[in-house]
Amino acid sequence: MNKNTGKHPAGFRHNDRSGHVGNAADFCRNRFYLYPFFLLIALWAFLTYSALLFVEVYQTADHDAGIGSLAAQYFGTAGRIVTTIVLMVFLYALLSAYITGGGGILASSLPTMGES
User: Fold this and answer.
1) Beta-carbon neighbour count of residue 61 at 10 Å?
2) 55-69 pLDDT, tens digit each
């Protein structure tokens, strides 16, 4: 809450002194909340479309085919190399995120483990 104006920084008041409780219209009037909402909808649509493309490709592929072998089949050796590099970068980012999050959880639980 902003001390100067008495309003929530995002413009959404939960329950002020007059008893006004913010509703969905107040929530949606603020652009701060609309941009991420539409971004999430667009990302969901993109991920759904790409998943459907994978389903289409895997219908004609061997049962043990992976992304690398499919890339080699459709795009050649260059496609397999690019796909492998992209997957390695993605897995490195995923591993880094899990190590960072797990380190915070482990650090917060270590002092309490010795006390109990």
Assistant:
1) 14
2) 998 898 888 888 889
